[in-house]
Amino acid sequence: MKVALIQMACTADVEDNRNKLAERIAEAANNQAELVVLQELHNSLYFCQTENTDLFDLAEPIPGPSSEFYGRIARQHSVVLVTSLFERRAPGLYHNTAVVFEKDGTIAGKYRKMHIPDDPAYYEKFYFTPGDLGFHPIDTSVGRLGVQVCWDQWYPEGARLMALRGAELLIYPTAIGYESSDTVEEQERQREAWTTVQRGHAVTNGLPVIAVNRTGHEPDPSGQTNGIRFWGSSFVAGPQGELLYRAEKDEETVKVVDIDLRRSENVRRWWPFLRDRRIEEFSGLSRRFLD
Predict the structure, then answer these.
(1) 113 catalytic per annotation
(2) pLDDT by residue (tens digit) across 125-179?
(3) Which of 10, 35, 100, 157 is least enclosed by beta carbons within 10 angstroms?
């Protein structure tokens, strides 16, 4: 399968971001991409750096204007498209939602972000209600996609549940970057940890992983921090964790990568982790902590 990653710097102009993405999706399709993956909350700046009730106006219902726009783009180029939208479910009830479009522009399925961070410059708990759709892969014409969102990528349980439900790919739209006061060494440790933990999901589940991150600097509107420099580094890993492609930190990128889905079957035969799991001993995983 040919998979396209679109790593991009966003602006405050939603229409500009969407039109820029439309051009890049067209570029990916012209390079024979069958599946196109976008970064987290790609319609706007990463607004969670501050807590501001006015920013809830960025949210949209699904179906809604953005789903109509991206559905039309998917249909126009006959690609399966993974998007990341700010969903308005009801007044006062909002989600960080990945929406997957089929080649005919219809919605194949959606996933609501389950793990919601609350850290300086990442005040997502103010905006997003935790997802309630569970960890269920989305069936498409190119395969069964295990889509999660950003902070979910640090948790092995979600990846495992997607794999146990037959996901053929693990996909993570992402918005993550450096805190400016950290040393260069600490910044690199964080970026490498981010890559390593997801490569671990590939290894332990015998599945390819696709992670697409933002790039560029976005200032903090409150001025309390120096903003976030998103570290890019979008990548595709194979089912043994091997890096098939990794983007630069500071460059916008449209990259088409070949993934051989048949390799997952052989890797799982060589390393039968699912066979050897001691599921009868795992009940403690449903507890917050074991004293």
Answers:
(1) yes
(2) 999 999 999 999 999 999 999 999 999 999 999 999 999 999 999 999 999 999 8
(3) 157
